[in-house]
Amino acid sequence: MHKRTASSEMLSRNISIILENLLKSYEQSQLPTHGQGVPTIVRTNILIRSMGPVSELDMEYSMDCYFRQYWRDKRLSFQGPIKSLSLSIKMLDKIWRPDTYFFNGKHSHIHTLTVPNKLLRLDQDGGILYSMRLTIKATCPMELKNFPMDHQSCPLIIGSYGYTRGQLVYEWKGADDAVSFVPGMTLNQFDLISMRSRNLTYTRREGEFSVLHVAFNLKRHTGYFLIQVYVPCILIVVLSWVSFWIHREATSDRVGLCVTAVLTLSTISLDSRTDLPKVKYATALDWFLLMSFLYCIATLLEFAGVHYFTKVGSGEIPAMSEDEWEDIDDEAIADIEIDRITHDHDLPTSIHESNESLASEYPQSLTGGFRKRNVMICPIYNDPTHVFQAPSSHASTMERTTQTEPPIISKTKQMWLCFIGDDKFRKQRERDASSQKGARYINSVSLIDRIARVAFPMSFALFNLLYWLAYTMFKTDFSWTSVKG
User: Fold this and answer.
1) Average pLDDT of the segment spanning 464-472
2) DSSP H/E element including 217
């Protein structure tokens, strides 16, 4: 035991003596190859412990790694029983070391708990290993036109800050494993497709500099966006189509459904843009949200067309002019109105008794007031089988129908005349609808709704097919980014 202790003390003394002798005539400011006419070569490799997050908003990424540098300084070679010496990091202040920095680095730092995470080792032939644990935050220029089906290439550029290529040259140590990962390392939002490294010369105003360049080629996971954005948007668009099956008289229901769908899409759109920079171009996600907006707005406009082109005045609900109402005697009008009130109040089935009591109760509404109604107003009943009851002499006038026979003029011209509000055309349609024999449902289904039930789903399905084919089949060719110091 005493022999081991004595030998250890002797070895420590020998190491101290060796280091003191090495540093007696050592000039820290001079490169190891100073005066030899050749540059000093620094070999580098990186072991990445973890990577991420990758931020699209700031266009940067971070990683935790072991950064190792190797070079030879013959001024520190020695002879002795020990092949290599593990030195204190205080020796770094006494020897020359490369002024390595990261060209595209942001807020990088060395870990210092519980002590600075650095290692310095010296070999007999003057070889030096300088290793440190770093958290590197570097810029990653991103092209987000295909977001979230995009591929990104995040670079890491290493070089000397002050020594030109004639003084200092960087090389990767081991071509195959110069940059490696801890087994089992994964990224949250991306898959690491490939990794490429190269040596190059970077020219700037101060001269030519040796640079190491590694690119991490990443592919984004789309699962999160499918669950949070795409599927909800598709369901909201499909939900807005329910209005095609809602009664067209339910104006507030159909309008409220479409407006709610638009507002919900607005919320999803704003939320999906919070983590993206304000780029000047539209991303793939923006195009999808825009098309969803257009479909919801088109659904609302479709109902506006249904409401305008198939209501009173276009022949869908029969109405009569004031002249025609004047031709009907007061007694017939009274019988019609009393019959309606009898139906609403569920009065006795004896029409004659009801008419006498109701005629005395509602004298004004059954005579002059009823005759002066606006031509665009027509009573509507929930019971689709209910039709006007009128004397046979006025049957052709009082029959209530919902559709007209095919017009003589073309459908296109008919729609145009209705769109511009041509009074002559609208009154003619009203007269034709009023004179048509055979009662039909007042709340019939619009032809526009029938077409929309098929056209909207089919066009939206086609749009989705083309959208996903265009963005999933498109493959990005990774290229080297330019080096900027």
Assistant:
1) 92
2) strand 207-220
